[in-house]
Amino acid sequence: MLETSLKSVTHAPGIALNISFEHALKDSPLFRSSVRLFADELDELEKWLVNISKICRIYTESLTKTNDIGLAVSRRVSSNKYISLLGALLHTYHFGSQNLIHLINRSDQEARLDYEKSVEKFEAATIKYAALPKSKESSALLEDAFILYEARKPFIKASISYVSKIIMLKYKLDIHIPDILMALIKVHTDYFEAGWDLFHGIEVASQDLRQKLDNARAMSSDTIKRLETVKNEFEEFAIESAKPRLKESTDHSKLPNRQSLSKSRPLVVVEREGYLFRKSNSGGSVWTRRYFSLKDAMISYSIVATSGKHKGKLMATTALSVALCNVRVSKLEDRRFCFEVETSSKSTFVLQAETEQDMNQWITAINSAKSVALANGAASIPIDVTNIEPFEPSSEDESDGGETLHQLKTQKPRESITINQTTATASSEDESFEIEASELETDGSFPQCADTELISMQDGSASKSEYDKPLFLI
Predict the structure, then answer these.
(1) Domain that holds residue 41
(2) How many domains in the chain?
(3) Exposure string over 337-370, b if 16+ CB within 10 A, otherwise e
(4) Which of 116, 176, 303, 474 has a CA 20 to 30 Å removed from the CA of 427?
(5) Residues 189 and 281 placed together within one structural domain of the fold
(6) How far is residue 116's CA from residue 96's CA, in Å, rounded to a whole number?
(7) Is this prediction's pTM over 0.85?
């Protein structure tokens, strides 16, 4: 008895198909229903097989693409004995095929050319000899026969040589083709065996990576919470600092993580960075907002070019030493919170801060940097601009209200230069900042400034605040 228990897809589940010889003889409604259900199931099976066929085809194509990607990667990364095996496979096949093609072409072409030339000459001689009249003398006919004979000899040699080369080529192909196939099989086998060894050896590295992932997953929650807390602290501080005040205050108690700063000794500002408005030196009352930096007793500003060939690039001025500069509040400007920096060459540039507190801090920072540089002696004052600024001559510098801007590329370490005469050299620096600076191009990045604007000067040493330590490393 033939029985089946296929479940119906188009009908309610749980219905058994009763198909047997006994049921067929009875021709009962149950049998007819089972036959109909079986037909439906057969249609569903056919659709399923079609879908499986499509999926298998897609899967096969994806494996082929994956293999092609692996080959492309293997050609570009450092080769190793595993990946290079597949390269050896392709090398064997490619050069074997090229050798065969070269062998066939060379042998065939040379012999064919010789044969074709000899055929043309022999055909011409044969036609000429066949056209001789009967009335021609026997001696002349004999002479023409020898002429035909001389044309027939190279034809015979070329024909035999051509056939010989064909036979030799067949023997060579009988040897080379199996040899290439055997080499392909060998390299292919080595490749798959090496691939198995490679993936089998990954298990140890996978366990180590899995452990690291588990540890990172366990720490991620706490890290995200800490990041959110620190983000809120800095956000609140920045918003509170930007809020206008009726009375300026120098209270920094709300700055997050400032507890590490020394409270027993005064703080001296020697490094600072931030935005200031700068009055143009080219005449008129044009004010532009620029990002200034004070570091190592050197001051400069930078911008990001918004147009032209330097669009999107960082441009900066040549740094000016403040060791021989004088700074004071400007009394002549209509604008508030302006101060002047007078160089040793008696040229003056005017800057404007956003608030009175900011202005006072900039003045204090410049004076402090000047005092520290002079107190530490001439050895700590970097005078030679070509040594402290990573500039190279360039014809692509741009002008910014009387100042020359240079494209920054890479930051080089600064070195302090020992000098004996400071006045003359500092004067040349003043001119490079205040007047048209020499045509110089920076090498990549704006002169780096401290991450914080406060440095505690204690016993001649500087210790940075807690802000210099990154809270998160990405």
Answers:
(1) 15-218
(2) 2
(3) bbbbbbbbbeebbbbbbeeeebbbbbbbbbbbbb
(4) 303
(5) no
(6) 30
(7) no
